[in-house]
Amino acid sequence: MSNNISTACNTGSYGIDCKEKCGNCLDVYKCLYTNGTCFTGCVAGYHGNLCKTPCTLGSYGLECRGTCGNCRMCSNTNGSCLTACDAGYLGEMCKTRE
Questions:
Q1: Which pTM does this prediction carry?
Q2: Structural domain boundaries in the chain
Q3: Is Iron found in the keyword set (predicted)?
Q4: Under a CB-based contact definition with an 8 Å cutoff, are residues 20 and 13 in contact?
């Protein structure tokens, strides 16, 4: 085993001997084989250069730029509320006032 960074890895892997798995890249073919950086960004729900960091509580979507509605927990991908809406709010995203 050489423990070298390969000149190319199979799609979805990177690093020394291609042992690391690419993150949640928008385009898995755009994961840099040397360090796993996602050139085209991350799928909804993840952020960071490697697209391995989920959105923090209260945010969702591409680059985690969306703000969840008025509920305790929402989907990190599309913002739909996974719990009941807070008092006084309605709808899938709990953004409509009663």
A1: 0.82
A2: 1-54, 57-98
A3: no
A4: yes
